[in-house]
Amino acid sequence: MAVENSLVNNQGNEDRLSVYLEKDAVKRQINQVVGGKNGTRFISSIVSAVQNTPALKECSSPSIVNAALLGEALNLSPSPQLGQYYMVPFDNKNKGCKEAQFQLGYKGYIQLASRSGYYKRLNAKTIKEGELVRYDPLNEEIEVNLIDDDIVRELTPTAGYYAMFEYENGFRKVMYWSKRKMMAHAEKYSFAFSKRGGAKTLELLEQGKIPEKDMWKYSSFWFKDFDSMAQKTMLRQLISKWGIMSIDLQTAVDKDMSVIHEDGSAVYVEDSENGEDSIDNNVVDEQSLTEVSGGNAGNYKGGLTSPEEDFFKQ
Hints:
Helix content is 43%, strand content 21%. By secondary structure, it is an alpha+beta fold. Helix 5 runs parallel beside helix 11 and helix 7 packs antiparallel against helix 13. The protein is globular, with a radius of gyration of 20 Å.
């Protein structure tokens, strides 16, 4: 009976989104950003994203549409397979509902930076155990010996993270962090990661030692896809500190990890003081292909920065 009720609720939520999309005001809003010719494609992409991410079905329709409109304005795809941006569900305790949060993926950073025309090269990559030969942080020189076999490389544990960019005029910046440094960074600034045991838990997950029945506790992508979140951190640090940012890239960075309102304003989410308000206790569907950063809570915080913003700026 519980399964049947769940199916009924999900169907009701999908119908609610369909009804919302039929409103004249919403159609005008979509046409202003997307244009009449692309409206059908845009709506199909929203419906597909919601179907692929079950937890989104419980989110308010305006938050879903506004997050998708921002992605569309930035010419990014909501497809989880492309990893350019994500719509992340979280529980807003003040409003008594779930809302969708816009989150930029590391591939979205690469897309937007590449389109700006300033960058000749831009890259973020995992470095596997045994590949790093030498890293000189003073001269920003790195020497690696990459594993040739892609399958073997994929199965080899990650040792660190590399990011770099080079302008068309030849200016170049390079960063390398060990995985240990990245985990310490995450433990310090990500509530969800530290609350769930941080580096020790991540090691157990990578070794397959967490029981299947307990996996729902680790829905944060700092546990589910640590490497992707680490590459995003590297790119964000590199570009925000030393890179030239186009208007689109600045907009994406400013509104990353926020709920978007109809007027385009961004509202951020506070870190929770306790586990009950954490997003990780609310997004428990293992099939949710969302990029969840640590410690999102159900209480809003106005302003231009959020704890997640602070996390990436450290």
